[in-house]
User: Which sequence fits this backbone?
């Protein structure tokens, strides 16, 4: 619904800009990222998928939305068409040669992950289910505690008061999944830095809803990223410092 869409958009406010700048391809391609936001206490995640469709010299294109998702263009093109294949939307339009066509989709996906602090907020217990998390970190009040790569299943990690990094430094790293939360036209962390509770964030290795090109038009797989955001239960960290 609208609340889920607003929450997902607040987390990924800069995804559109990041993809639009980065999408370059020699053949028709999709560059996309899915941001999964785990619901607290429920086996479901809100998913926002953003895609940049490129056609090297411009021209018509069709893009299939993730099954069951509410999909729409972020940027309009000439001759916009929407048709349905069972319960899946297929969007068609004409892409300009100098700019990608930006699309977004909102959906809910089955997912059961969790994270929680102990009473002292210095030990974190994480359960990622069947997939791991790359370049994970705890985000809280403009600071990030890096955890590195976390395996599938249950993990316990220490999160001391020292060793935190400034979120502005983390989002500036173009190799980090945090780059998608960089505020437009700046190196600031954007809305991810103002969340009301700590979250665990990283690049997830599990499946996620994605847009797709028709079989005959599939060229370069320019990029598919999946970022998972898990709210952390328990007391927030106290005395965190870089």
Assistant:
């Amino acid at each position: 619904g609208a609340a889920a869409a607003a929450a997902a958009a607040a987390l990924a406010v800069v995804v559109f800009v990041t993809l639009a700048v980065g999408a370059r391809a020699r053949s028709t391609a999709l560059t996309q990222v899915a941001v999964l936001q785990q619901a607290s206490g429920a086996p479901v995640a809100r998913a926002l998928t953003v895609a940049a469709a490129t056609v090297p010299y411009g021209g018509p294109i069709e893009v299939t939305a993730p099954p069951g998702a509410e999909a729409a263009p972020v940027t309009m093109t000439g001759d916009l068409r929407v048709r349905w294949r069972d319960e899946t939307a297929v969007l068609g339009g004409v892409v300009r040669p100098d700019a990608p066509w930006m699309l977004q989709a909102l959906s809910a996906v089955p997912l059961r992950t969790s994270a929680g602090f102990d009473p002292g907020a210095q030990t974190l217990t994480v359960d990622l289910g069947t997939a791991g998390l790359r370049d994970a970190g705890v985000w809280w009040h403009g600071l990030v505690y890096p955890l590195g790569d976390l395996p599938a299943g249950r993990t316990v990690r220490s999160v001391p008061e020292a060793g935190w990094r400034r979120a502005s430094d983390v989002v500036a790293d173009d190799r980090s999944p945090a780059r998608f939360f960089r505020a437009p036209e700046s190196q600031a962390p954007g809305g991810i830095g103002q969340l009301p509770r700590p979250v665990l964030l990283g690049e997830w290795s599990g499946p996620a809803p994605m847009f797709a090109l028709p079989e005959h038009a599939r060229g370069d797989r320019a990029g598919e990223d999946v970022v998972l955001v898990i709210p952390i239960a328990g007391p927030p960290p106290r005395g965190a410092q870089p």
Observations:
- The first strand starts at residue 29 and ends at 38.
- The radius of gyration is 18 Å.
- Residues 1-13 have pLDDT under 50 and may be disordered.
- Helices lie at 2-11, 15-22, 167-171.
